[in-house]
Design a protein that fits this description.
Elements (H helix, E strand, L loop, with lengths): L2 H22 L14 H25 L3 E2 L9 E9 L2 E12 L5 E7 L9 H14 L5 E6 L4 E2 L3 E2 L5 H17 L8 H6 L7 H4 L2
Helix pairs in contact: 1-2
C-alpha cells in the first residue's frame, strides 16, 4: 500500500474510534491524556504523532532484513491468534509479528506505540510459548518495535527469561483474581494513567 493510502486508512480508523470514544464518554475531562494539557490538544497531538509513526513504520519495513513468516495456510504471520496454557491458566492472544531471517530462523516482534520500552520481555516470552504450542515453531529471540524511535530494540534472548517464573506469575495472578485480591501500586505516574483509579480506595483517600 502506498504511504498516502496507509495514511487514509489511519485517518478513517482514527475518526471512527474517536467518535466511538466520545459516545461512550462525552465528558472530555474524564479522558486519559498525556501530560498537563487539554484533552482536545492531546487528541490533536496524538493524531499528528500517529500519522508520523505510520510513515516511519513503512520506511523501516522497506529496509528490514526480517520478513514475515509464512503460515501453513499461506498467509503472513501477522496478528497470529494463539490459544495455550501457562501455569494452568488458559491464555488467548495475538502475536503482532512472527518474522524470519535469511536462514529461516523464527523471531517474534511486538509493536509498541507508547514511550516506554518494557523492562522485561514477558510479552515476548508469552508469544514464544504460544507459537511453540500452537504451530510447533520455536522462536529463541524477539524484540519490540518502538514506533517513537522508528526502529526495534536490540534482539532479546528469550532463553534468558525463566519459563517456570512465567508460569508462576500466571498462576499467582489467576489465584489472586479468583480471590478478588487487587493490590494497588500507587505513584504519581501509575495513578495518573490507571483506568480504574476512581474505584480505588487508596486513590480516593489521597
Amino acid at each position: 500500500m502506498p504511504v498516502l493510502g496507509a495514511l487514509q486508512v489511519f485517518t478513517a480508523t482514527w475518526d471512527q474510534l474517536i467518535a466511538k470514544a466520545q459516545e461512550e464518554q462525552p465528558n472530555l475531562n474524564q479522558w486519559l491524556r498525556g501530560g498537563r494539557k487539554s484533552t482536545t490538544t492531546d487528541i490533536e497531538d496524538r493524531y499528528r504523532t500517529g500519522r508520523s509513526q505510520v510513515v516511519g513504520y513503512i520506511e523501516y519495513a522497506k529496509q528490514d532484513h526480517l520478513k514475515p513468516l509464512t503460515l501453513p495456510d499461506g498467509e503472513p504471520a501477522v496478528e497470529v491468534g494463539v490459544e495455550t496454557e501457562i501455569g494452568g491458566v488458559r491464555v488467548l492472544g495475538y502475536i503482532d509479528l512472527v518474522l524470519e531471517d535469511f536462514e529461516g530462523t523464527p523471531f517474534v516482534r511486538d509493536l509498541k506505540t507508547g514511550t516506554k520500552t518494557p523492562h522485561l520481555p514477558v510479552q515476548l516470552k508469552v508469544y514464544q510459548r504460544g507459537l511453540r504450542d500452537v504451530l510447533g515453531v520455536e522462536a529463541d529471540w524477539g524484540d519490540y518495535y518502538m514506533a517513537k524511535d522508528g526502529q526495534p530494540t536490540d534482539p532479546i534472548d528469550l532463553g534468558s527469561f525463566s519459563e517456570p517464573l512465567l508460569e508462576r506469575w500466571f498462576t499467582d495472578m489467576d489465584q489472586a483474581e479468583r480471590a478478588g485480591i487487587y493490590m494497588p501500586n500507587p505513584s504519581s505516574d501509575n495513578c495518573w494513567s490507571c483506568p480504574v483509579k476512581h474505584h480505588c480506595p487508596v486513590y480516593r483517600s489521597n
